[in-house]
Amino acid sequence: MDKIVIEGGKPLKGEVQVSGAKNAALPILAAALLAPGESIMRNVPDLQDVRTFTALLRFLGARTSVEGSVVHIDASTVNRPEAPYELVKQMRASVLVLGPLLARFGKAKVSLPGGCAIGARPINLHLKGLEAMGARISLERGYVIAEADRLKGAEINFDISTHTGTENLMMAATLAKGRTVLINAAREPEVEELARILNKMGARISGAGTNIIEIEGTDDLEPFDHAIMADRIEAGTFLVAGCLPGSDIIVKGCLPEHLGSVISKLGQSGVDVEPTARGIRVRGTERPEPVDITTAPYPGFPTDMQAQFMVLMCLSSGQSLITETVFENRFMHVSELQRMGADISVRGRSAIIRGQERLCGAQVMATDLRASASLVLAGLAAENTTEVLRVYHIDRGYERIEEKLGKLGCRVKRVAGSA
């Protein structure tokens, strides 16, 4: 396995381009299953999760091809509505094929995704919603078996906001008979992006981006051609990198309105964050001010930015409190940051961070996607050399991160074949 080696302590200077959004690309790949014919996705990031999802589409019978950042999906030949455990276990977003397969083919067999390193994320809300739309659901030997002659519109009230659940049921409802209303729906920009694509395909969706989404079902849909939005979490990660002492960078291609809570908290820390015509400019200070955060569904502070923001607070001039409300096991990066000299105490779902003047380079191990990003940021700020192991995690969500950091003047390299 590869590792990333970082010589820390050098300020970041220059501009960085944000790639297409992983969390938008995956549901849009699933949406291609709703219509026979060739759909075209542009600005697609070259990530392991995207490669895994296209492999799943090929297993289902679709024809796919990749030309740089353009992906072609021809769903005319889909003939096996089954997502096997071997693929689903690699990426729980594979469950997003459940709604489109059931809606188009009247049946689907999808492996249960199980939990993951950052906590259990069951799909019971997906299944309850499909049952409300008339699906017959059974569980057999670790698989969800779903059948329906044709789904019927229904009013579905989510007990809690669910990002993938909203997307799965929104896709299923596009080919249902009648009107579906999703109440307490997820409001993330990626949900809005999926609705835009579905409407391009001929769906009739309103309210995406609010907590009530209405879908008028239609008999059939057409393929799409669409360039996906920029990745707001990658953008947020680079904004935090630009907050390191002496740094001055412009993050290009992202929309400030997608990062409102992150930009607000960075501003409270005393760094200079300014939207410009070229992108978002961020300039670091010698020591950021301590800031408390509590993660929450969008438009709250994103759980996917919690680990990165913690690194900034490790360098603050006081004590801060980070409370994680979305996932129950998302502080695994804490022990690795402690190896680098961070002063952090975890109490249940809260972490108390006492800022230090500096971090020290060390060998650390990534445990999940966003934890790996936080360790890279810590390495940039630390004295001496940091080695981040198990960087296959970071390859799931950051496109060539070491190359982008290198262009900002960082001394960072990937070393192949390490443990």
Account of the protein in words:
- By secondary structure, the chain is an alpha/beta fold.
- It has 2 domains: 3-19 and 230-415, Alpha-beta prism (UDP-n-acetylglucosamine1-carboxyvinyl-transferase, Chain), CATH 3.65.10; 22-227, UDP-n-acetylglucosamine1-carboxyvinyl-transferase, Chain.
- The chain has helices at 22-31, 48-60, 85-88, 98-105, 124-132, 163-173, 189-200, 232-242, 260-268, 306-314, 333-339, 369-381, 392-395, 401-407; strands spanning 3-7, 13-17, 38-42, 63-67, 70-74, 82-83, 107-111, 136-140, 143-147, 155-157, 179-183, 204-206, 212-216, 225-227, 248-252, 272-276, 279-283, 293-294, 319-323, 343-347, 350-354, 363-365, 385-389, 411-415.
- Strands 22-23-1-24 form a 4-stranded mixed β-sheet, with helices on one face.
- Helix 5 packs parallel to helix 6 (163-173).
- The N and C termini lie close together (5 Å).
Essential attributes:
UDP-n-acetylglucosamine1-carboxyvinyl-transferase, Chain, about 30% helix, about 25% strand, 24 strands, 4-stranded mixed β-sheet, 14 helices
> How many helical elements?
14
Strand order of the largest sheet: 22-23-1-24
Query: Whole-number average pLDDT?
Result: 94
C-alpha-based Rg, rounded? 22 Å
CATH topology of the largest domain: UDP-n-acetylglucosamine1-carboxyvinyl-transferase, Chain
Strand content: 25-35%
List the helices and strands and how they pair.
Elements (H helix, E strand, L loop, with lengths): L2 E5 L5 E5 L4 H10 L6 E5 L5 H13 L2 E5 L2 E5 L7 E2 L1 H4 L9 H8 L1 E5 L12 H9 L3 E5 L2 E5 L7 E3 L5 H11 L5 E5 L5 H12 L3 E3 L5 E5 L8 E3 L4 H11 L5 E5 L7 H9 L3 E5 L2 E5 L9 E2 L11 H9 L4 E5 L9 H7 L3 E5 L2 E5 L8 E3 L3 H13 L3 E5 L2 H4 L5 H7 L3 E5 L4
Parallel strand pairs: 2-15, 3-14, 6-7, 10-11, 18-19, 22-23
Antiparallel strand pairs: 1-23, 1-24, 3-5, 4-5, 7-9, 8-9, 11-13, 12-13, 15-17, 16-17, 19-21, 20-21
Helix pairs in contact: 1-2, 1-7, 4-6, 5-6, 6-7, 10-12
